[in-house]
């Protein structure tokens, strides 16, 4: 009986959460070379002047990443490497175009796929909520016939699970080609979007559930919170929309570099992106509705307050008229010298107030 896990089982056991990166180096090149019969992993840490590389755990290792042999797949994962000269030096054996290196060093790139003949360049972006604020990070991928290069501007803990799966022969990834490894990276990025979107939906639902409560209704920042959710949805959609186009191009088989059974798995990744977009659109519509409801609710509360103030004003208006009349200094006023005149005027004022209150209550103004 084979000890290799089925591909579907391996895919189902992806770790959706990012791994802890608090103790990992901020600048490193992680290399994995594998085939059905060989496996090799090591980490290279750049020196302070970025002039050469040395191995963190074993200084006797070569001062540069190994070259893969025929039939092996070479995965180089660059983290926090911002020096263009160092990138050109390490990427020279792969013939990477200078425009690709320029894009890799750019902090903002929309998702795209570009065919350079011998390799594909794929730019993606991931998001994460940090202290309630949506932050983004660029992730780049270069796919060749026997190599995969991935780039991050800082440690994210995204691909640690894939590296662990490569070390475990039961997952059977070593028997797959470079295209399948690239698919695993793309699928992992999409899995990360589900976490981000789940956090986004939780924020939307938490506001929606308390939208009409007294405490939230009086929250002056509520409209700002709703607006930030709307802005977050725009940012997520600006990335997911072009990412869908990237996957559509890959699933169509337009690129010779991306071949084999990986195209079949990419269809599942494409369906996941469609699911993300549909969920995001539904949440975005809810946010827009919440904004309209909040503004209407605030307007209704203002109308109720104005109604109360208007009723109070109407109650005192006839009293003001009565007191104004009796405040005039005329000698010939019948009630001035009447023994019960004062009590008659007070009774009249009370009767007017009670009558107006009954009238307003029947008209449902109170």
Automatic annotation (TrEMBL):
* Stretches that traverse the bilayer: 308-328, 340-361
Give the reaction(s) catalysed.
Answer: Mg(2+)(in) = Mg(2+)(out)
Give an example GO molecular function.
Answer: magnesium ion binding
Subcellular location field: Cell membrane; Membrane
- Domain of life from the UniProt record: Bacteria
- KW Disulfide bond (keyword) present: no
Return the InterPro entries for the record. CorA_cytoplasmic_dom, CorA_TM1_TM2, Mg/Co-transport_prot_CorA, MgTranspt_CorA/ZnTranspt_ZntB
Work out whether the entry's keyword set contains Manganese.
no
Q: Principal localization?
A: membrane
Pfam families registered for this protein in UniProt: CorA
Q: Which GO terms describe its cellular component?
A: plasma membrane
Membrane topology per the record? Multi-pass membrane protein
Write the record's keywords in alphabetical order, separated by commas: Cell membrane, Ion transport, Magnesium, Membrane, Transmembrane, Transmembrane helix, Transport
What is the recorded function of this protein according to its Swiss-Prot or TrEMBL entry?
A: Mediates influx of magnesium ions. Alternates between open and closed states. Activated by low cytoplasmic Mg(2+) levels. Inactive when cytoplasmic Mg(2+) levels are high.
NCBIfam families xref list: corA
What family, per the record? Belongs to the CorA metal ion transporter (MIT) (TC 1.A.35) family.
Instruction: List the protein's name.
Output: Magnesium transport protein CorA
Q: Which organism is it from?
A: Neisseria arctica
Gene name of the record: corA
């Amino acid at each position: 009986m084979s000890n290799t896990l089925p591909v579907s089982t391996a895919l189902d056991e992806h770790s959706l959460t990012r791994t802890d990166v608090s103790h990992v180096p901020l600048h490193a090149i992680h290399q994995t070379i594998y085939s059905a019969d060989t496996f090799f992993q090591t980490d290279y840490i750049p020196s302070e002047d970025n002039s050469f590389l040395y191995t963190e755990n074993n200084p006797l290792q070569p001062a540069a990443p190994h070259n893969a042999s025929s039939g092996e797949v070479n995965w180089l994962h660059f983290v926090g490497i911002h020096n263009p000269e160092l990138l050109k030096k390490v990427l020279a054996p792969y013939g990477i175009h200078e425009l690709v290196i320029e894009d890799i060093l750019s902090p903002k790139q929309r998702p795209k796929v570009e065919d350079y003949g011998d390799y594909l360049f794929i730019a993606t972006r991931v998001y994460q909520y940090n202290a309630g604020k949506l932050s983004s990070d660029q992730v780049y991928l270069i796919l060749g016939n026997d190599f995969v290069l991935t780039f991050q501007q800082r440690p994210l803990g995204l691909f640690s699970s894939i590296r662990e799966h490569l070390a475990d022969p039961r997952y059977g990834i070593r028997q797959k080609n470079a295209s399948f490894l690239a698919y695993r990276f793309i699928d992992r990025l999409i899995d990360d979007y589900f976490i981000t979107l789940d956090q986004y939906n939780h924020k939307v639902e938490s506001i929606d559930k308390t939208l009409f409560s007294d405490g939230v209704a009086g929250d002056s920042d509520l409209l700002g919170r709703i607006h930030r959710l709307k802005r977050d949805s725009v940012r997520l959609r600006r990335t997911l929309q072009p990412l869908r186009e990237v996957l559509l191009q890959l699933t169509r088989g337009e690129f010779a570099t991306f071949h084999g059974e990986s195209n079949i798995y990419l269809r599942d990744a494409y369906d996941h992106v469609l699911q993300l977009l549909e969920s995001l659109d539904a949440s975005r519509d809810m946010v827009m509705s919440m904004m309209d409801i909040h503004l209407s609710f605030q307007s209704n509360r203002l109308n109720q307050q104005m109604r109360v103030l208007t009723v109070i004003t109407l109650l005192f208006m006839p009293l003001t008229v009565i007191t104004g009349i009796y405040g005039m200094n005329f000698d010939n006023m019948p009630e001035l010298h009447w023994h019960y005149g004062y009590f008659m005027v007070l009774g009249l004022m009370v009767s007017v107030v009670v009558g107006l209150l009954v009238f307003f209550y029947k008209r449902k103004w109170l």
